[in-house]
């Protein structure tokens, strides 16, 4: 049997900066203007045999003067543009783009990803999100309701995947002798009529190389977990401890069984931000240096707003206990992250210093240590049923990215936890997921995409 491998994803936004570390002297601050920065990041990650490079995104920009002045939330590249460019300068690494189901149309999304999957020779994934805000930019008075967003998301994915099955894999003949461009018998017209969408089809694009691009998902509310269990294949989540991660892992994979999906059909990757040094003292010094270039009040304000705490934590001193109101306001934005942070504060009763040194604005785990420390932690989570891998949020780019690739990846490879060479070409092959057959047509005897080994340089 092929040994189970720990999956490695890399997290980026379209601005290139990682969280609130942009003020560090070594951090790039011009990646939103220069594609060459991303080309360098992607090629370095591909050399380290990462499964995929993931681009987080949203459809709004802040207007609050403090956030505008201090937070790198804008500008940023459209992830579909970045993926298209990176598809041409990489050969193996998967490329996952975030696109909202709340503020997009299924036909456009199906066409974008079908085209990108052809462009990349089968290396694309779609991160399905319902967005945390943005309705004001799409002819709406405000953000769509949480329950409505997820109801719409289920139907949206059904329409997109239905459009991907518009044509048989061998529908297009391009036979000059007979004059037949396509076989009409190998066309399926969708004729979708639902509560949110009316889409006739067919899609005016060839079927994706992977059948369907990989479906990623990042919601961890109850509605988010239901969507993940039904359609998700690559799940991004946040967890602060291994027991919490193990409970989420079991919950989602149990829900998936209700849809007759095997547990291995879903790969779960919690986010983690490692700071690595050759010694623990070196790692701690790097982390202390990172903290010195953060603005505590900006970080506290971002956490307060991101998790809808109902209280502004900025202005507190480092030794103050973190206060919370007795009743936390219900949020229409990031329900799972609100619960994660509120539960942790109530359980741990941390000081402000403890909060700001442990939590980034996104609520993901921080790890500080040697390559062996990081690998020990990863292996424990992986072996104990808490995850299938990790989505790495580098402490900075390029230095944090290079430190992880140079120091941690070789240790993971030495332990046999991650690959030392790509054995396939498509993202599905990297993840051990099968190509999706067309529900309407039998597969042709041969398919143009073949697996090809690609060595990951040391």
Quick overview of this protein structure:
The chain has 458 residues and is α/β, with parallel strands linked by helices. The protein has a single domain, classed as Alpha-Beta Barrel (TIM Barrel).
Could you please describe the fold and organization of this structure?
- The chain has 14 helices and 15 strands.
- The protein is an alpha/beta fold.
- The chain has an 8-stranded parallel beta barrel with strand order 1-2-3-4-9-10-11-13, surrounded by 7 helices. It has a two-stranded antiparallel ribbon with strand order 5-6. It has a two-stranded antiparallel ribbon with strand order 7-8.
- The two termini are 26 Å apart.
What key phrases describe this protein's structure?
globular; 14 helices; TIM Barrel; two-stranded antiparallel ribbon; alpha/beta; 458 residues
Summarize the SSE layout with pairings:
Blueprint: E1 7-12, H1 35-47, E2 52-55, H2 65-70, H3 79-87, E3 94-100, H4 106-119, E4 124-129, H5 146-164, E5 172-175, E6 180-182, E7 192-193, E8 198-199, E9 214-217, H6 222-231, E10 234-237, H7 242-257, E11 267-276, H8 280-292, H9 296-306, H10 335-348, H11 352-358, E12 365-369, H12 371-383, E13 389-392, H13 399-414, E14 421-422, H14 427-431, E15 454-455
Helix pairs in contact: 4-5, 5-6, 6-7, 12-13
